[in-house]
Structure of ACT domain-containing protein:
Amino acid sequence: MRNSPTTPGTPTTWRLRVRLDDRPGALARVATRLAARDCNVLALTVLPVPGGVVDEIVVRTGPGHAPADLVDDIRAEGGRCLGIARADTRHLVDHTTAALRVTAAALRDPAAVADAVRTVLDADSVTIVDTATGFGDQNDHRVVLPLTDDLTVVARRGWAPFTEVELARVAALSEALVAGDVTAPTAVITGTGAGIVLRPGTPADADAVNDLHSRCSAQTLFTRYHAGLRTLPRRWLHRLLQPPRGTTLLALCGTEVVAMAQLIRTNDPAEAEISVLVEDSWQRQGLGTAMITRLGVLGRAAGHRRMIAWCMPAEAGFTRAANAAGLPVAVRREDDLLRVAISVDAPERTAESSETAAA
């Protein structure tokens, strides 16, 4: 906890992050205890976290009350104070309004990106560092967000850990900053909080993509290529990175490629074929979903209405990731394969959803 000295007899405003038992009336009982100390609750925000919620309370204390008194009241009701810090008028502004304002400022002036991240995350400090220099490990109090191939944003907050909701907010900020250019690199946050850059592949990525394949298990490679590959033929690399009828999307953690996906035009202008390869140790963290979502944006920009994937009947990972992307998914069996159709065009969504129901 980060506390500042108070002057006796002077009212002080504090921000508290509180984890309470999931029982009816728990928050009301805390508010009643605070009221008994002549404290005034000025704002309340509920932040969902795995297994429950964290309540952020902005409270003005009565004269002579120390922050330790507030912590004691929370503990008396079975709660846990995750952090407490001085508050000011910024914390009484509607968070959505503040986020929209700083996003607009960052769109007008790239130099305002650090301030935007600071506001959205309510971080103590935000620095932009050269990716090649390194920036330490990510943890609950440090967020690492790739900004470009060369630059990374590092945000820190000492008084309380970052929540998944806040990580989602800063990921949305990153998406907004690149919305004007669908081919520009974009950043995503995985389920474990790692920062990943998604960008198109280039011939210079050949060695990194080859290393990705060497780290993948035989099962993962078979799921992607439907063939018993152990190593990737070198002659395939150029075609993988610059397919003549489509695009290749890479996911990078620092300089290491940890996943790749392709979108290839078919003879039907409305359709493009999609494929995804995620390194074993990065699976089930949302990377496949993020790449499908991004390829959906690229496919829609290219005029496609559907993305089609061909999967083995026993493969559930791709369909699960596609459903998690929030796009309408239709699955049907053709011969010995599953045809997974993902709608990326609004007028087609009703038809795709009906096909799913029929299946």
Remarks:
- The mean pLDDT is 82.
- Residues 287-301 form the longest helix (15 residues).
